[in-house]
Amino acid sequence: MSRFDDIIGQELIKKFLLTSIARGKVSHAYVIEGDKGMGKKLIANTFAAYLVCDDKSSCGACESCKLAAGGAHPDIITVLPEKKQIGVDDIRQVIKSISIKPYMADKKVVIIPDADGITQEAQNALLKVLEEPPEYVVFIILIQNAELLLDTIQSRVMRLSLTPYTEADIKKALGGDSALVAASENNIGKALALSGDETYLEIRDNCLKQIEKLMSSRQIVIFDTVEFFEQNKEETGKILDIMLGFLRDIVFIKLGQTDLLGNKDKTESLVRLAEKTQLSGAFKMAQYITEAQKMHSRNVNFNILVTAFANGCWEVLNGRNSRSSF
Ligand SMILES: [Zn+2]
């Protein structure tokens, strides 16, 4: 059984949805907007459970609630795209299934997850339904950035943007305080994923040490950085993500925006590093990391990636003109 009371944070959105149910003012379409790991699916599934429940309370006892809890309610349709992104055929399928009245509930809920890649053609098809939806249908579209949707769709949906979780929310989710609270960047999904990753904090500490080394003035450290990557070859993507997070924080410190730090527990070290580097250098290094991330996603040879990255960073941080190898 899923109830809003059991979901941590997002108080405003939960209250808004509960109030619209209580007042009988449920919209035909919602967009829930938020980064990966923010809980879009959980909120959508929970809202759907309320909508199909016999007394609209997600009571947990009625037949609808039992089916919803098992992910088997016939009036809750979750779109699973045929291809990588939601295409027009997926939307046609939806149109077909909503032309049939609800089987058990008085609502039929259509959840469209990962709508970020939805094609133009699919959006046009979706728009047509949103213009004249059957009265029993409720669409819940989940997306990282609602601006990707056509203006004409945006104007027909209720847009709910998830807000960053507070430190207290994350602590609650993790069941206590830990260094992961700071590393989670106010994203509850990330916090939970990290809590299942035993080596994460150790790798994170080592990443910071590597950045400190890169910012020292001896070129020999390049070999050290290359070695660090080699020892953790399987974790290349993770290491680059963590390093980018640290660099972003160094930039925030240079800009005087310490309230935006994602790695608050490392503030002291990061401030020291910020003192050592120019704003332009930190930007440039962040750029090198982003480039390395792209190379990593394109499966560029590991040695080329790491050597180019380490050389680039070292030169930037030591104030040389960078001979970009990218
Ligand atoms: Zn119920």
Top keywords for this entry?
alpha/beta, disordered C terminus, 326 residues, Rossmann fold, binds zinc ion, 5 strands, 52% helix, 15 helices, Zinc Finger, Delta Prime, domain 3, five-stranded parallel sheet
Q: Report the top-level CATH class of the largest domain.
A: Alpha Beta
The best one-word shape is elongated
Helical percentage:
40-55%
Uncertain regions spanning at least 5 consecutive residues: 321-326
Largest sheet: 5 strands, parallel
**CATH architecture field of the largest domain:** 3-Layer(aba) Sandwich
Characterization of the model:
The protein has helices at residues 11-22, 40-52, 63-69, 88-98, 120-131, 151-154, 167-174, 179-183, 188-195, 200-214, 221-231, 236-254, 267-276, 279-297, 302-317, and strands spanning 29-33, 76-78, 108-112, 137-143, 158-161. It is an alpha/beta fold and 326 residues long. It has a five-stranded parallel beta sheet with strand order 2-3-4-1-5, with helices on one face. The protein is elongated. The chain starts with 10 loop residues before the first helix and ends in a 9-residue tail after the last helix. The structure holds zinc ion. Residues 53-54, 58-59, 61-62, 64-65 line the site of zinc ion.
